[in-house]
Amino acid sequence: MANAEAFDAIIIGGGPAGLAAGIALARHQLKVLLLEKHGLPRDKPCGEGIMPTGVALLDQLGVTNHLNNAELRPFQGISYFGPDGNMARADFREGVGLGIRRLELSRALYARACEIPDLEVRTRCTARLMDSDNMQVSVAVANRIAIAPLVIVADGLHSPIRRQLQLQERPGSYERWGARQHFEIPPWSSDVEVYFSDGLEAYVTPSGPCRVGVAFLWHRDRIKIKGGQALIPELLAQFPELERRLQECATSSSMAAIGPLQQRVVRRIRDGVVFLGDAGGYLDAITGEGISLALEGALCLEKTVVPVLKRHRTRPGEVVKVSELRQFERKTARSLRRYYRLTGIVLKLSCRPNWSRRVVRALHDNPVVFQHLLSANMGLVAPWRLSPTALWRFGWSLIWG
Questions:
Q1: CATH fourth-level superfamily of 5-72+100-172+262-342
Q2: Which residues face 256 on adjacent strands?
Protein backbone atom coordinates (compact mmCIF):
# COMPACT_ATOMS: atom_id res chain seq x y z
CA MET A 1 0.00 0.00 0.00
CA ALA A 2 2.29 2.68 -1.31
CA ASN A 3 -0.10 5.57 -0.58
CA ALA A 4 -1.05 4.42 2.94
CA GLU A 5 -0.09 6.44 6.02
CA ALA A 6 2.10 4.37 8.34
CA PHE A 7 1.96 4.47 12.14
CA ASP A 8 3.37 2.41 15.00
CA ALA A 9 -0.16 1.93 16.36
CA ILE A 10 -3.71 2.94 15.47
CA ILE A 11 -6.38 3.40 18.14
CA ILE A 12 -10.07 3.25 17.23
CA GLY A 13 -12.18 5.10 19.80
CA GLY A 14 -11.62 8.32 21.74
CA GLY A 15 -13.24 7.47 25.06
CA PRO A 16 -11.21 7.26 28.30
CA ALA A 17 -9.67 3.91 27.29
CA GLY A 18 -8.63 5.10 23.82
CA LEU A 19 -7.28 8.48 24.90
CA ALA A 20 -5.39 6.93 27.82
CA ALA A 21 -3.89 4.31 25.49
CA GLY A 22 -2.82 7.01 23.05
CA ILE A 23 -1.12 8.98 25.83
CA ALA A 24 0.60 5.88 27.22
CA LEU A 25 2.03 4.82 23.84
CA ALA A 26 2.85 8.16 22.22
CA ARG A 27 4.81 9.55 25.17
CA HIS A 28 7.39 6.85 24.33
CA GLN A 29 8.01 8.44 20.92
CA LEU A 30 5.78 5.99 19.08
CA LYS A 31 3.80 7.42 16.17
CA VAL A 32 0.16 6.88 17.09
CA LEU A 33 -3.08 7.69 15.26
CA LEU A 34 -6.31 7.92 17.27
CA LEU A 35 -9.63 7.91 15.41
CA GLU A 36 -12.93 9.00 17.01
CA LYS A 37 -16.19 9.03 15.04
CA HIS A 38 -17.71 11.79 17.21
CA GLY A 39 -16.33 15.13 18.34
CA LEU A 40 -14.16 15.57 21.43
CA PRO A 41 -14.66 16.14 24.27
CA ARG A 42 -17.68 13.83 24.42
CA ASP A 43 -20.31 13.19 27.08
CA LYS A 44 -21.70 9.70 27.77
CA PRO A 45 -23.82 8.00 30.47
CA CYS A 46 -21.52 7.34 33.41
CA GLY A 47 -21.64 7.09 37.20
CA GLU A 48 -18.73 9.59 37.26
CA GLY A 49 -17.17 8.34 40.48
CA ILE A 50 -13.47 7.47 40.12
CA MET A 51 -11.96 5.45 42.96
CA PRO A 52 -8.63 6.44 44.59
CA THR A 53 -6.70 3.96 42.43
CA GLY A 54 -8.22 5.53 39.30
CA VAL A 55 -7.24 9.00 40.52
CA ALA A 56 -3.64 7.79 40.91
CA LEU A 57 -3.73 6.37 37.36
CA LEU A 58 -4.94 9.71 35.97
CA ASP A 59 -2.00 11.34 37.72
CA GLN A 60 0.42 8.82 36.18
CA LEU A 61 -0.96 9.73 32.75
CA GLY A 62 -0.44 13.45 33.44
CA VAL A 63 -4.16 14.21 33.26
CA THR A 64 -4.91 15.64 36.71
CA ASN A 65 -3.22 18.97 35.91
CA HIS A 66 -5.82 19.49 33.17
CA LEU A 67 -8.86 18.98 35.41
CA ASN A 68 -11.08 21.95 36.21
CA ASN A 69 -11.94 22.07 39.93
CA ALA A 70 -15.37 23.51 39.12
CA GLU A 71 -16.23 20.25 37.34
CA LEU A 72 -15.22 17.78 40.06
CA ARG A 73 -15.63 17.03 43.75
CA PRO A 74 -13.57 14.74 46.04
CA PHE A 75 -15.37 12.04 47.98
CA GLN A 76 -14.12 10.27 51.09
CA GLY A 77 -15.84 6.89 50.85
CA ILE A 78 -19.01 4.95 50.05
CA SER A 79 -22.38 4.93 51.83
CA TYR A 80 -24.86 2.10 51.27
CA PHE A 81 -28.57 2.50 51.97
CA GLY A 82 -30.51 -0.75 52.18
CA PRO A 83 -34.11 -1.28 51.04
CA ASP A 84 -35.23 -1.03 54.70
CA GLY A 85 -33.47 2.33 55.25
CA ASN A 86 -30.46 0.94 57.12
CA MET A 87 -27.15 2.61 56.26
CA ALA A 88 -23.49 1.52 56.22
CA ARG A 89 -20.49 3.66 55.31
CA ALA A 90 -16.71 3.48 55.18
CA ASP A 91 -13.86 5.78 54.18
CA PHE A 92 -11.24 4.73 51.67
CA ARG A 93 -7.92 3.78 53.24
CA GLU A 94 -6.07 4.96 50.16
CA GLY A 95 -7.15 8.61 49.99
CA VAL A 96 -10.03 10.27 48.20
CA GLY A 97 -11.95 9.43 45.06
CA LEU A 98 -13.10 12.05 42.58
CA GLY A 99 -16.54 12.70 41.21
CA ILE A 100 -15.71 14.04 37.74
CA ARG A 101 -18.29 15.08 35.18
CA ARG A 102 -17.76 12.67 32.24
CA LEU A 103 -17.56 15.58 29.81
CA GLU A 104 -14.80 17.11 31.95
CA LEU A 105 -12.89 13.82 32.11
CA SER A 106 -13.04 13.59 28.31
CA ARG A 107 -11.88 17.21 27.99
CA ALA A 108 -8.91 16.69 30.35
CA LEU A 109 -7.79 13.49 28.62
CA TYR A 110 -8.11 15.17 25.22
CA ALA A 111 -6.10 18.19 26.42
CA ARG A 112 -3.35 15.90 27.67
CA ALA A 113 -3.38 13.94 24.40
CA CYS A 114 -2.98 17.15 22.38
CA GLU A 115 0.24 17.94 24.29
CA ILE A 116 2.02 14.88 22.88
CA PRO A 117 3.61 15.52 19.45
CA ASP A 118 3.59 11.86 18.36
CA LEU A 119 -0.14 11.40 19.02
CA GLU A 120 -2.42 12.48 16.18
CA VAL A 121 -6.14 12.65 17.06
CA ARG A 122 -8.69 12.77 14.25
CA THR A 123 -12.32 13.31 15.18
CA ARG A 124 -15.60 12.87 13.29
CA CYS A 125 -14.24 10.09 11.12
CA THR A 126 -15.48 6.52 10.87
CA ALA A 127 -12.85 3.78 10.82
CA ARG A 128 -13.22 0.31 9.37
CA LEU A 129 -10.73 -2.46 10.02
CA MET A 130 -9.33 -4.22 6.93
CA ASP A 131 -7.64 -7.59 7.35
CA SER A 132 -4.37 -8.07 5.52
CA ASP A 133 -3.03 -11.48 6.62
CA ASN A 134 0.56 -11.16 7.88
CA MET A 135 1.04 -7.66 6.52
CA GLN A 136 0.39 -4.61 8.65
CA VAL A 137 -3.20 -4.06 9.72
CA SER A 138 -5.05 -1.62 7.49
CA VAL A 139 -7.74 0.81 8.63
CA ALA A 140 -10.01 2.61 6.16
CA VAL A 141 -10.58 6.22 7.26
CA ALA A 142 -12.96 8.05 4.93
CA ASN A 143 -11.22 7.74 1.53
CA ARG A 144 -7.75 7.14 2.99
CA ILE A 145 -5.88 4.12 4.34
CA ALA A 146 -3.74 3.98 7.48
CA ILE A 147 -1.56 1.00 8.40
CA ALA A 148 0.18 -0.17 11.58
CA PRO A 149 1.47 -3.42 13.09
CA LEU A 150 -1.15 -3.08 15.85
CA VAL A 151 -4.67 -1.70 16.11
CA ILE A 152 -6.10 -1.03 19.58
CA VAL A 153 -9.88 -1.23 19.54
CA ALA A 154 -11.46 0.99 22.21
CA ASP A 155 -14.75 1.81 20.50
CA GLY A 156 -16.97 1.26 23.51
CA LEU A 157 -19.54 -1.03 25.06
CA HIS A 158 -21.31 -1.94 21.81
CA SER A 159 -18.13 -2.13 19.74
CA PRO A 160 -18.77 -2.16 15.96
CA ILE A 161 -15.27 -3.60 15.40
CA ARG A 162 -16.01 -6.46 17.81
CA ARG A 163 -19.06 -7.32 15.71
CA GLN A 164 -17.15 -6.85 12.45
CA LEU A 165 -14.53 -9.40 13.56
CA GLN A 166 -17.28 -11.75 14.80
CA LEU A 167 -15.87 -11.72 18.33
CA GLN A 168 -19.20 -10.82 19.98
CA GLU A 169 -20.19 -13.64 22.34
CA ARG A 170 -23.84 -14.62 22.87
CA PRO A 171 -25.77 -12.48 25.42
CA GLY A 172 -25.13 -13.15 29.10
CA SER A 173 -27.62 -13.86 31.86
CA TYR A 174 -27.98 -10.22 33.00
CA GLU A 175 -30.00 -7.65 31.08
CA ARG A 176 -29.10 -4.50 32.98
CA TRP A 177 -29.49 -0.91 31.82
CA GLY A 178 -28.21 2.39 33.12
CA ALA A 179 -29.37 6.01 33.02
CA ARG A 180 -27.95 9.29 34.30
CA GLN A 181 -29.10 12.83 35.11
CA HIS A 182 -27.36 15.82 36.75
CA PHE A 183 -29.10 18.01 39.32
CA GLU A 184 -28.14 21.51 40.44
CA ILE A 185 -27.74 21.17 44.20
CA PRO A 186 -24.72 21.42 46.52
CA PRO A 187 -23.57 17.89 47.44
CA TRP A 188 -24.98 16.96 50.86
CA SER A 189 -22.51 14.14 51.51
CA SER A 190 -18.76 13.60 51.28
CA ASP A 191 -19.46 10.07 49.97
CA VAL A 192 -20.83 8.42 46.89
CA GLU A 193 -24.24 7.24 48.09
CA VAL A 194 -25.69 3.96 46.83
CA TYR A 195 -29.39 3.23 47.38
CA PHE A 196 -30.60 -0.36 46.91
CA SER A 197 -34.10 -1.42 45.94
CA ASP A 198 -35.47 -4.63 44.40
CA GLY A 199 -33.49 -5.03 41.18
CA LEU A 200 -32.62 -1.33 41.06
CA GLU A 201 -29.92 0.94 42.48
CA ALA A 202 -29.38 4.70 42.55
CA TYR A 203 -25.86 6.18 42.75
CA VAL A 204 -25.46 9.77 43.89
CA THR A 205 -22.03 11.21 43.06
CA PRO A 206 -20.87 14.76 43.90
CA SER A 207 -19.46 16.11 40.63
CA GLY A 208 -18.98 19.82 41.35
CA PRO A 209 -19.49 22.43 44.06
CA CYS A 210 -23.19 22.80 43.15
CA ARG A 211 -23.97 19.61 41.23
CA VAL A 212 -24.63 15.93 41.84
CA GLY A 213 -24.92 13.20 39.26
CA VAL A 214 -27.57 10.56 39.85
CA ALA A 215 -27.12 7.28 37.99
CA PHE A 216 -29.53 4.36 38.00
CA LEU A 217 -28.83 0.72 37.22
CA TRP A 218 -31.63 -1.80 36.93
CA HIS A 219 -32.52 -5.33 35.87
CA ARG A 220 -34.80 -4.83 32.90
CA ASP A 221 -36.59 -8.14 33.50
CA ARG A 222 -37.52 -7.04 37.05
CA ILE A 223 -38.17 -3.30 36.73
CA LYS A 224 -40.67 -2.30 34.07
CA ILE A 225 -39.99 1.30 33.02
CA LYS A 226 -41.71 3.11 30.15
CA GLY A 227 -38.65 5.13 29.18
CA GLY A 228 -38.47 8.34 27.20
CA GLN A 229 -38.67 11.64 29.08
CA ALA A 230 -40.45 9.89 31.96
CA LEU A 231 -37.52 7.54 32.58
CA ILE A 232 -35.65 9.50 35.28
CA PRO A 233 -38.82 10.55 37.20
CA GLU A 234 -40.04 6.93 37.15
CA LEU A 235 -36.70 5.64 38.44
CA LEU A 236 -36.43 8.39 41.06
CA ALA A 237 -39.92 7.56 42.34
CA GLN A 238 -38.56 4.18 43.50
CA PHE A 239 -36.46 6.06 46.11
CA PRO A 240 -38.88 8.42 47.96
CA GLU A 241 -36.25 10.01 50.22
CA LEU A 242 -33.99 10.82 47.30
CA GLU A 243 -36.96 12.02 45.24
CA ARG A 244 -38.00 14.45 47.99
CA ARG A 245 -34.47 15.86 48.19
CA LEU A 246 -34.25 16.48 44.44
CA GLN A 247 -37.84 17.37 43.52
CA GLU A 248 -37.26 21.16 43.51
CA CYS A 249 -33.84 20.99 41.83
CA ALA A 250 -33.18 22.05 38.24
CA THR A 251 -31.43 19.57 35.97
CA SER A 252 -28.11 20.54 34.41
CA SER A 253 -27.82 17.89 31.70
CA SER A 254 -29.93 15.91 29.30
CA MET A 255 -31.02 12.48 30.42
CA ALA A 256 -28.80 9.74 28.96
CA ALA A 257 -29.27 5.97 29.05
CA ILE A 258 -27.31 2.93 27.90
CA GLY A 259 -27.75 -0.83 27.77
CA PRO A 260 -27.67 -3.71 27.87
CA LEU A 261 -24.53 -3.42 29.98
CA GLN A 262 -23.28 -7.01 29.94
CA GLN A 263 -21.21 -7.61 26.81
CA ARG A 264 -19.27 -10.81 26.27
CA VAL A 265 -16.33 -11.22 23.94
CA VAL A 266 -14.83 -14.40 22.47
CA ARG A 267 -11.28 -13.13 23.03
CA ARG A 268 -9.53 -9.80 23.61
CA ILE A 269 -6.44 -10.30 21.45
CA ARG A 270 -5.73 -11.61 17.99
CA ASP A 271 -2.92 -11.02 15.52
CA GLY A 272 -2.59 -7.28 15.06
CA VAL A 273 -5.55 -6.37 17.28
CA VAL A 274 -6.10 -5.65 21.00
CA PHE A 275 -9.48 -4.85 22.55
CA LEU A 276 -9.30 -2.36 25.41
CA GLY A 277 -11.82 -1.04 27.93
CA ASP A 278 -15.52 -1.81 27.49
CA ALA A 279 -14.88 -3.04 23.92
CA GLY A 280 -13.07 -6.01 25.46
CA GLY A 281 -16.16 -7.16 27.37
CA TYR A 282 -18.10 -5.79 30.32
CA LEU A 283 -20.26 -7.12 33.12
CA ASP A 284 -21.77 -4.20 35.05
CA ALA A 285 -21.10 -0.77 36.58
CA ILE A 286 -22.36 -1.76 40.04
CA THR A 287 -18.87 -1.74 41.62
CA GLY A 288 -17.76 1.54 39.98
CA GLU A 289 -14.50 0.22 38.53
CA GLY A 290 -15.03 0.78 34.80
CA ILE A 291 -12.90 3.91 34.34
CA SER A 292 -10.13 2.63 36.61
CA LEU A 293 -9.95 -0.66 34.66
CA ALA A 294 -9.73 1.22 31.35
CA LEU A 295 -6.88 3.42 32.65
CA GLU A 296 -5.11 0.42 34.15
CA GLY A 297 -5.30 -1.41 30.83
CA ALA A 298 -3.84 1.58 29.00
CA LEU A 299 -0.89 1.81 31.38
CA CYS A 300 -0.38 -1.94 31.06
CA LEU A 301 0.12 -1.37 27.32
CA GLU A 302 2.95 0.99 28.22
CA LYS A 303 4.79 -1.74 30.13
CA THR A 304 4.11 -4.70 27.85
CA VAL A 305 3.38 -3.49 24.30
CA VAL A 306 5.63 -0.44 23.88
CA PRO A 307 8.79 -2.64 23.70
CA VAL A 308 7.06 -4.89 21.15
CA LEU A 309 6.12 -1.94 18.92
CA LYS A 310 9.66 -0.58 19.08
CA ARG A 311 11.01 -3.97 17.96
CA HIS A 312 8.55 -3.96 15.04
CA ARG A 313 10.15 -0.81 13.67
CA THR A 314 13.00 -3.08 12.55
CA ARG A 315 10.52 -5.56 11.00
CA PRO A 316 8.28 -3.46 8.74
CA GLY A 317 5.37 -5.27 7.12
CA GLU A 318 4.62 -7.62 10.05
CA VAL A 319 1.68 -7.48 12.40
CA VAL A 320 2.14 -7.95 16.13
CA LYS A 321 1.43 -11.62 16.82
CA VAL A 322 -0.75 -13.02 19.58
CA SER A 323 2.35 -14.56 21.15
CA GLU A 324 3.80 -11.05 21.55
CA LEU A 325 0.63 -9.87 23.32
CA ARG A 326 0.49 -12.67 25.90
CA GLN A 327 2.21 -10.63 28.61
CA PHE A 328 -0.38 -7.87 28.21
CA GLU A 329 -3.18 -10.44 28.33
CA ARG A 330 -1.83 -12.10 31.49
CA LYS A 331 -1.39 -8.83 33.36
CA THR A 332 -4.83 -7.46 32.48
CA ALA A 333 -6.52 -10.82 33.10
CA ARG A 334 -5.73 -10.60 36.82
CA SER A 335 -7.59 -7.30 37.17
CA LEU A 336 -10.47 -8.53 35.04
CA ARG A 337 -10.86 -11.74 37.07
CA ARG A 338 -11.12 -9.68 40.25
CA TYR A 339 -13.61 -7.31 38.62
CA TYR A 340 -15.83 -10.11 37.31
CA ARG A 341 -15.69 -12.04 40.59
CA LEU A 342 -16.64 -9.16 42.91
CA THR A 343 -19.08 -7.59 40.48
CA GLY A 344 -20.82 -10.93 40.04
CA ILE A 345 -21.29 -11.27 43.80
CA VAL A 346 -22.78 -7.78 44.16
CA LEU A 347 -25.03 -8.37 41.13
CA LYS A 348 -26.49 -11.48 42.74
CA LEU A 349 -27.20 -9.49 45.92
CA SER A 350 -28.93 -6.77 43.88
CA CYS A 351 -31.47 -9.38 42.73
CA ARG A 352 -32.24 -10.46 46.30
CA PRO A 353 -33.58 -7.64 48.50
CA ASN A 354 -33.55 -9.78 51.64
CA TRP A 355 -29.86 -10.48 51.25
CA SER A 356 -29.00 -6.88 50.34
CA ARG A 357 -30.73 -5.82 53.59
CA ARG A 358 -28.64 -8.32 55.52
CA VAL A 359 -25.40 -7.24 53.85
CA VAL A 360 -25.98 -3.53 54.54
CA ARG A 361 -26.79 -4.30 58.20
CA ALA A 362 -23.69 -6.50 58.54
CA LEU A 363 -21.48 -3.81 56.96
CA HIS A 364 -23.00 -1.23 59.31
CA ASP A 365 -22.05 -3.42 62.28
CA ASN A 366 -18.57 -4.11 60.87
CA PRO A 367 -17.16 -0.92 59.27
CA VAL A 368 -13.63 -2.36 59.27
CA VAL A 369 -14.86 -5.15 56.99
CA PHE A 370 -16.59 -2.62 54.75
CA GLN A 371 -13.38 -0.58 54.45
CA HIS A 372 -11.41 -3.74 53.67
CA LEU A 373 -13.88 -4.71 50.93
CA LEU A 374 -13.55 -1.26 49.33
CA SER A 375 -9.79 -1.87 49.08
CA ALA A 376 -10.43 -5.37 47.71
CA ASN A 377 -12.74 -3.96 45.06
CA MET A 378 -9.82 -1.82 43.84
CA GLY A 379 -7.56 -4.89 43.72
CA LEU A 380 -5.32 -3.76 46.58
CA VAL A 381 -5.98 -6.64 48.99
CA ALA A 382 -7.53 -10.08 48.82
CA PRO A 383 -11.19 -10.01 49.97
CA TRP A 384 -10.71 -12.89 52.42
CA ARG A 385 -7.54 -11.54 54.11
CA LEU A 386 -9.26 -10.41 57.28
CA SER A 387 -8.60 -11.43 60.85
CA PRO A 388 -10.55 -14.52 62.00
CA THR A 389 -12.34 -12.34 64.57
CA ALA A 390 -13.47 -9.82 61.92
CA LEU A 391 -14.66 -12.62 59.63
CA TRP A 392 -16.53 -14.32 62.47
CA ARG A 393 -18.25 -11.09 63.53
CA PHE A 394 -19.23 -10.25 59.96
CA GLY A 395 -20.57 -13.76 59.37
CA TRP A 396 -22.57 -13.61 62.63
CA SER A 397 -24.08 -10.23 61.65
CA LEU A 398 -24.89 -11.51 58.17
CA ILE A 399 -26.73 -14.59 59.42
CA TRP A 400 -28.29 -13.35 62.66
CA GLY A 401 -28.23 -9.56 62.39
A1: FAD/NAD(P)-binding domain (3.50.50.60)
A2: 180
